[in-house]
Amino acid sequence: AVVSTQSTGIQYLDLELYQHIENLTGGHWLFCFRWYLLMFKNEFKMEDILKLWDVIFSQHNSGHFEIFVGSSIILMHKEQVLACGTSDQLLHFAQSVTSKLDVGSVISYAREVSHKIANTEGLSENLAALVKRVDKVPPPLVGFVRRR
Q1: Mean pLDDT to the nearest integer, 119-125
Q2: Which residues neighbour 144 within 8 Å (Cβ) at sequence distance 6 or greater?
Q3: Where in the chain does DSSP place strands (E)?
């Protein structure tokens, strides 16, 4: 369900990218399944993963902020994804980002994605439930506060 919700979010945000991934995968976005299974543990350095987990588990406007994180990784690497010609290349892309992502940039972009989707008219049921849409969602934060 998480991966299908992510694909629907990408469809709303970037139809060209969505169609390319759909054509390569036949609708099965398994290339990013590991991200969710391990909650991005392999994609970030240990000190960064703790920051990311803190943000994921403390988001007030979504019970599944990790979906926006995964979507952001794909959207931030759009050119690389579009350069993939096979599902194997797409899987290689997903594995190649390991420990190369900047946690602050990913979190900031994920917040922007969350904000865009929350303020999109005509959302599918699964996306609407995901963002727990309210009349006005606050704009994304630039940074995040580290708890002690």
Answers
A1: 73
A2: 51, 54, 55, 104, 107
A3: none
